[in-house]
Amino acid sequence: MDLKERTVLLTGASGGIGKRVARRLAASGARVALAGRQTEVLGQLAEELRGSGVKAEPVIGDLADLDSLDDLVDRAERALGPIDVLINNAGVELAASFPKYQRTELEWIVTVNLTAPMLLTRRVLPGMLERGRGHVVFVSTGAAKVAPAYQAPYAATKSGLVSLAQSLRAEYHRSPVGFSVVLPGFVKGDGMYQAWIDQGVTASRMLGSTTVDRIAGKIVGAVQHDRPEVLDMGMPVRSMFATTQLSPGFGDSMARRMSPVFRKQAEMRDRL
Predict the structure, then answer these.
(1) Is residue 25, in this structure, part of any structural domain at all?
(2) Residue 63 domain flag
(3) Angle value at C-alpha 94, between 21 and 258, nearest 5 degrees
(4) Does pTM top 0.90 for this prediction?
(5) Taking CA atoms, which of 106, 114, 130, 257 is between 20 and 30 Å from 82?
(6) Is the pLDDT of residue 220 over 90?
């Protein structure tokens, strides 16, 4: 898809990856609806993007409020026109041993990470089909392939996005609408993992890492080239993940290697 003068709804736009994606979209000539909760941050980002000659509007909303999602899309479309691209970038995590999760926390993670992307996609898809163009991206994680300890609800919901994208591609393979899932590894430069690095917590080097700029490029590239699934952990990992499917014991080993960084986070939060 050529993104020039296409309208993109980007969730999680105030976060580290979201900001980089927004800038890349603007550089491609897209109109960008910036969805998120941080009014001031989104307002400043919208002004920055407008300075590059494109249309951009903040669309303030909380994905945990499922009843507000239709209105969020309506406001974005009133400001910038029908949605051509939906990028489900927003996500939340909380490291803890499983019994330490409160029910409200489990519901929050499932709502933001999985239910909201489903509802937003269901809302914009009919218009895309009617207009004969569109693309939806789901931003998942490498933990969807090998799920570490102390992140069970996060890994489970992000795994759901992988299946969701695959199912929708199969259902609409004869249509002009595409679906992609992007799976970053540990992301340096901004966001969750960078905050951990700042606290002195890092993952094993053998697990690899990537950067926010690289992931932003992968997300925009997935739209432009209709890529089904994009893995980026800063190292060749597809063969490793394939091996986990052939050998569950190997998958167990990889999950254990990934877990210490998450255990440390759970410990720092007093959630073991």
Answers:
(1) yes
(2) yes
(3) 85
(4) yes
(5) 114
(6) yes
Per-residue tokens: 269: 């939060």
d(CA 96, CA 105): 11
Q: What is the pLDDT of residues 235-260, one digit of tens each?
A: 556 667 777 777 888 778 878 888 88
- The domain of 138 spans 7-268
pLDDT in tens, 21-54: 999 999 999 999 999 999 999 999 999 999 999 9
**Residues 138 and 168 sit within 8 Å (Cβ to Cβ):** no
Residue 249 is assigned to a structural domain of this protein: yes
Number of domain units in the chain: 1
Distance CA 248, CA 265 (A): 26
Check which CATH number belongs to the domain holding 111 and give it.
Answer: 3.40.50.720
Please report how many Cα atoms fall inside a 13 Å half-sphere around the Cα of residue 44, on the Cβ side: 6
**Which is the catalytic residue, given 101, 150, 154, 193?**
154
φ/ψ of residue 176, rounded to 5? -85, 10
Q: Is 193 among the residues known to form the active site?
A: no
Radius of gyration of the chain measured on its C-alpha atoms: 18
Is beta strand 7-10 parallel, antiparallel or unpaired with respect to 31-36?
A: parallel
